[in-house]
Every structure is written in structure tokens, then in C-alpha cells.
Amino acid sequence: MKIPQLPSPALPQYIHFQPITLNGLSPMHLGGSPIDLGISLIYTSAEHAPEHPLLRVSPSQILSRSTIEAFSKSDRHLHDLLQTTGPLAHTPRGATMIFLLQRMGTAAGVVAGERDGWSQYIRFLPHLVLLPTTYTLPERKLLTGTSLEPAVSSKFRALTQEFDSFRAAVPWATLQDWIHVDSLFRSRSLELPSHGTSLVPILDFANHAEDANAFFAVNDEGEATLDLRPGIPPLKDGDEVTIDYSGDDPKSAAELVFSYGFLPATLSSARSLTLPLYASDDDPLGRAKETVWTTQRCVKIFETGDDSVDWEAGFVYLSVVNEEDGLFFHVLQTMEGERKLQVLFKDEELDLRGNPRRLEELLRAGDMWGVFQLRAVATLKELVEKQLGRLLAVNDELEQEAAERAMGVGKKEEEEEEEDYRPQPLSVITALRELEETLMLKAVDMFEKQQATLLSHPTVQTYLAQMQQQQESPKDQNTIIANDEGYGEIDLS
After folding, report:
1. Using one digit for the tens of pLDDT, what is the confidence trace for 4-16?
2. Alpha-carbon distance 301 to 251, whole Å?
3. What is the separation, in whole angstroms, between the first and last Cα of the chain?
4. What is the DSSP-derived secondary structure letter of residue 232?
């Protein structure tokens, strides 16, 4: 939907009529290329009283789950929309996005609703937030081989399902509008003490810096505040006031791109990356394994701070354990007539929902732990090598495309215009690809070293020798009898 934008010079007038107090702070459009900084917060010493915060925002203007509920009591249209969307509106994210969508409709004049401070403030916000979910198709293809490729695809599916669940209640909105409010929420929300996940007008213009010179908090009156960090060098007129989006938990390069659409110029490593992990296609128990594993099926590869890397992947142990190791599934029927899968490992029932690490604990305690480690490492090494191969293949294509353009050959002019990449996505994705390539190369090297160490373990050598001997000894296939105890492939239909 088309919302009439308001220019940044109109912000002082907006602030004048809102319970918002500035103290040595001025919102100003900085822009920039290739990264557009948009409206930012600029320090003005002449207007600064050091004994007071740079910014104070009344709790009535902090957009949180509780304030949205309060708004809905006086706004019948908002109340009805929240009721229509059901469980989605019961979460801070869902309620905030529905509120923003409704206020966007009000600002655009396509739906009735309260014309309050937020319906005006939303007109200052960017009409396009350059997150991966708003990339063009050619730009999204550049994500191939990165950890964001599956994450963005999954996010698109989730957003589509959400919007379809209440599409009939908002005939004036589109899926693209829903994607837009999601990008606004992800890029501008903060975790505020006593308020929870919130959007705070004016404070949400503060850009990120890892060496931020300011921090946000909540005072005794429940106001959101912005203060200068103690001990920083004195600010000069025109200096930008910044905050740290990561807090105490530094975000990975992929997380920064996914939620905020940029990478700090000072970021020298990917920090970590997460890849989806699935059971083997030829595993007859694969579907059952994925069904009973209720937490995220993935491998996280992360840097440890000494130029080395490590990994976490709880599901990988379930994926490499088989019937011959003592893993069994039984289909049980409850008193209510429902069917559930029971998981057993050597006669112990596993509650993988309540204790997903229990199988790993049992494997560690057994004599064959080295064997299971080797299987896990080999599985993850293959996964990362395939991902790295896909990333490098796209690098080759990009290099060839650049060479052809430099030589004036290749695509026709109209095709080039269709596939041109905008400066910010191209810059951000190029940097992400380089950082994740470096991390995956380190991970492959780590897996190779772990594999070599495990292959030298006596237990592993004995196991591999036995396996080789079994393969060399012909078996009478007629003696292999299919059992009927529910083992093998599980019927989940």
C-alpha cells in the first residue's frame, strides 16, 4: 500500500506534540552508499544538559504487547482485527505487526482506525527495509551457498502462512505489506526491561556500532531513555549517537544481515553460521527421527576466539544411530485414540522433547562412543563441503559475469537492467559470502583433523576391521528374515 511519506525535517514538529523529550539530540537523514544509514541520531552540544538523558520516551508511546492491548480498548477497528487473527496476536511480535499493519492502512487512508501518534510516526519510517526478505529474485540468488539461503526460504514460507491465516480480514493489505511490517519489526524492535519486545519512536533511529557511544534503558517512571556511555571521549557537534544491537551476545554476520540488513565495517569474521541438518535419504528410520526431534535440526559452527572453530549439532547423533546400534521406534496408541512414536535406545525410553541430549549422554557412556563421533563428524563434514561447493560455484559465476560485462559481452542490455543488483544488497551479500567462506574452510579443516584423530582410535579401528570383514564374507540372503516387530520404516500415515 502507498503511504504518504513525511520528510525528516518534519520530525521536530511531530516530537513537539508527543510525550518525547530530546536533550542534545537531533534526528537527521544521513543516507550514504552503498549502505543507506537513513534517519540517524546526531549530537548537538549546545542543546545538551549532561545531567539528563539524551532522550526520554513516555511509556504510553512505547509500542509493546501491553500498550497495544490498551490501544485496542479505545480503537474498535484494532480490537476486531486482533480478535480475528487469533493466536498470532497473543505474541509480542504478532501483536506489534498487526498494529503496524492497521496503522499503515489508516495512514494510507484505506481502512478506518485511530489517527494517533503512531499513524503519523509510521510515515517517517522507510517505505522499504533492505532485509533479505525484501531482496529481488536476482539478489536472493546471491545468497546461494550461504547460511541465509535456507533461513530466508523458511522465513518466506512462515510469513506467507501467517498472512494467509487472516488474509480475509484485511482485504486492503497484501502479502508484501505483511513482509514490510515484519522487516520493520525485526530491524527496529528492542528488548526493554519491564516492557519486553518493543518499538520506541525516535530511539529506533539509532544506528548500530560495536563501539557504541550510548545505551538505552528504562527509568523508574517506565520511560525509555538514551544515555551516553560513561568514559567515552566527549562527543563533538555532528557526531552520530549509536547503540549496540547485540547487547551481551554478539550476533553472527548472518544474524546481522537477516535482521538488520547490514554488516559493520569493523566485522572481520562470520562468528558463526547455522545450517539445516536432515536424516539421510536412504535411512529407513529418517522420517521417524525427524518427527521425534522437536528442537531445531541444525549444525552450528562457531569461532572459539583463538582462530579455531567448533560445532554443536544435537540431532546429528540421532541421525547416525541405527537399529543395529540399539535404536528402536514403536507406534503407540493413546487412550484418546491418537498415535505417538516411542523412542527406545537399548531398552531405555528417550524423552527427546524434555531432554534432547539424553541420547548423546548414553552414547558418550558406551564403549562405541568413538564410532558414533566418527559417524557424526563424517556427516557434518559432507554437509559443510556441499554447502561450500555451492557457495564457490556461485562465486565462479559472478566472476565470469563480471568479466563478460567488462568485455561488453554476455546478456543483452535489457536483461542486464533486470538483473542489476542494488548497491546495498550487493555490498552486504558479497561481504557475507567472503566471511562465511572463510568460516566453512576452517570448519572443513577442523572436521578433517577430528576425523583423522578418531580413525586412529583403537575402538574405531576394531569396528572398521569388523565391518570390512563382514563385507568380504558373503552372506546367504535367504537367511535374512524381515521382522514384524515394528522396526525398519515406520508408517506415520
Report:
1. 999 999 999 999 9
2. 13
3. 43
4. P
